[in-house]
Specification:
The chain is mainly alpha-helical. It contains 6 helices and 2 strands; from the N terminus they run ββαααααα.
């Protein structure tokens, strides 16, 4: 079966995917995308959690810099800082990925490990009640 332009097509369930797609989507890119999707999802949940429990931020937040920033500028400043940090780190990771820079993997591992630890902490706290 061929699409317009006579590209060979692979069958996956009921969807047709051009075979050229599989050649361009490497395992490296797939893992990179999956890792940073998890990181951004965890960061979004962390911001949501901070907003939901903003009245008792000082009781649950463990980062002294974030506590200081909240005391100086409020929760809006904390959320703006988190957004800035995530845009900066994600942009840097994307640049490293496409240039195949050697810092791509260490950056992804460090940021991913931090958000994995935070996610485990959230899950364990929710399981305890």
């Amino acid at each position: 079966m061929a699409l317009a332009g006579s590209l060979p097509v692979s069958r996956l369930g009921s969807e047709s995917i051009p075979a050229s797609y599989w050649r361009t989507c490497s395992l490296r890119t797939a893992l990179f995308t999956l890792s940073w999707s998890f990181i951004l999802l965890a960061a979004a949940y962390d911001s949501y959690f901070a907003w939901q429990y903003r009245t008792v931020l000082d009781a649950w937040e463990m980062n002294p810099f974030i506590l200081w920033l909240a005391g100086v500028g409020g929760l809006a400043t904390v959320l703006a800082f988190k957004l800035f940090a995530m845009v900066l780190s994600t942009g840097l990771a994307i640049i490293c990925h496409f240039r195949r820079h050697r810092l791509e993997i260490p950056l992804t591992l460090v940021v991913g490990s931090a958000y994995l630890a935070l996610s485990v902490h959230y899950v364990m706290s929710n399981l305890q009640g």
